[in-house]
Write a structure and sequence with these properties.
22 helices, about 425 residues
Length: about 425
């Protein structure tokens, strides 16, 4: 009987009910079936506040606000211009510049959808002007946008750390080296595609060294802000929450100082932050209720016991988990995937002896792949809509460039020290 709510949740997801409400409804039903109505009322009376009033979670709206201020100040265009002047002369130059610009923007915002939307407005018109093929334009913006959730600051990293009681600071720092490597692999994949298909895009003349260094001056304050935020977390001088507060305040002051952020932009940024935070917290509250049901049903413990008793190598289990996350990524939102699966998956991963920080980065890479895979690749839908490119064409380009994401994933799976080297030295 304990499995009935799980079956119901799958049915609700298939008929299109939002993930948060699917988890909340089935969680309440499961608690009622196991503990009765008194248990339901007791949990509903305390769980929503306790799950939302978590100190670490205050980092989420602050990093989102930081991203909104940077976006409203149109710093995205400056980041792209720097990348364009430095890498535009390479094969697939504008696309390569987009990869590095997305990585840079991701280091300021931590939101893949924000990166995809902002870059679509800046990059795709320029690519169309220079006669780049749409599949390359849309594909690179969609896939490069996923780098934002790997490179700190990262909202999904914060959610993972909170859900698993893992150090958020170490998780954020752990994303730096993998983020750089994933960026280089994606840029290399773009260049290889451009060299293999000469019709994809034209080559442009390189900019002078003077023009390249002049472009950097435009975003020096933002670079200093990023180094301050990440540096304070790495050294332990400030908590992630305190660093996020510094980041949001600094982004506001930089936008005002550059005279690009007006009162309307500030108010719009605050409104967008409230909406995004509200959505995330609804998912967190409903996932917590669902987690109570799982705890009372002993399903996670049963799964761990069953798999632990199997005479198979632990990497076989990890391979199955990879397939599971990739499958879920095709149909669900990244934060929903983490909150839905971690109550069952994390105890198993811990029991098998895998490092929590390492698995955090692996799970983030897996859910970011889902942002560019059909049928619910959110980044691809955003790029298609903003860039006015047919959805099929956008998915075609993203599927080709996802090869880079899978190469990065295999590298991090095979060599965990790539992920753990920096956080182990904090």
């Amino acid at each position: 009987m304990e499995l009935v709510p799980l079956v119901l949740m799958l049915v609700l997801l298939m008929i299109g009910l939002p993930v948060a409400f699917s988890m909340g409804i089935t969680g309440i039903l499961g608690i009622w079936m196991i503990g009765g109505w008194d248990s339901v009322m007791g949990i509903l009376g305390t769980s929503p506040f306790r799950s939302a009033a978590h100190y670490t979670l205050t980092t989420v709206p602050l990093f989102i606000l930081m991203a909104e201020f940077i976006t409203s100040a149109n710093i995205t265009r400056d980041v792209f211009q720097i990348a364009y002047r430095w890498f535009g002369h390479l094969p697939g130059g504008l696309a390569v510049a987009t990869v590095f610009a997305d990585a840079g923007f991701g280091a300021m915002c931590g939101s893949s959808t924000a990166a995809a939307a902002s870059m679509s407005k800046v990059v795709i018109p320029e690519m169309k002007r220079l006669h780049y093929k749409d599949e390359l334009s849309a594909g690179v913006v969609a896939v490069a946008g996923t780098l934002a959730v790997l490179i700190p600051p990262s909202v999904p990293m914060i959610i993972y750390g909170t859900a698993t009681e893992t150090s958020v600071g170490k998780l954020l720092i752990a994303g730096i080296v993998p983020g750089i490597i994933a960026t280089l692999i994606l840029a290399g994949t773009v260049m290889a595609w451009a060299m293999a298909d000469k019709t994809l895009c034209p080559r442009i003349e390189p900019f002078s060294w003077k023009e390249r260094f002049e472009a950097i001056n435009a975003i020096l304050p933002v670079v200093v802000l990023f180094l301050l935020v990440i540096g304070s977390i790495y050294t332990g001088f400030a908590t992630p929450t305190e660093s996020a507060a510094v980041g949001a305040t600094g982004a506001l002051l930089i936008g005002l100082g550059m005279r690009r952020l007006k009162v309307v932009g500030v108010l719009d940024s605050i409104t967008s932050t409230i909406k995004s935070t509200g959505t995330i917290f609804i998912i967190i509250i409903c996932a917590t209720i669902f987690g109570y049901y799982l705890t009372m049903s002993q399903i996670p413990q049963a799964v761990v016991g069953l798999i632990s008793a199997m005479d198979v190598n632990r990497w076989v289990i990890m391979g199955l988990l990879v397939v599971l996350y990739l499958a879920l990524g095709c149909i669900m939102d990244q934060i929903a995937i983490l909150l839905l699966t971690l109550p069952i998956v994390f105890p198993l991963v811990d029991a098998l002896g895998f490092d929590a920080i390492w698995f955090g980065v692996i799970s983030i890479v897996l859910v970011e792949i889902g942002l560019a895979t059909p049928p619910v690749g959110l980044n691809v839908f955003i790029v298609s809509s903003v860039g006015n490119i047919p959805l099929g064409t956008a998915f075609k380009g993203s599927m080709i460039l996802l090869v880079a994401c899978f190469l990065s994933l295999l590298l991090f799976l095979g060599f965990p020290e790539i992920v753990l080297w920096v956080p182990n030295r904090m």
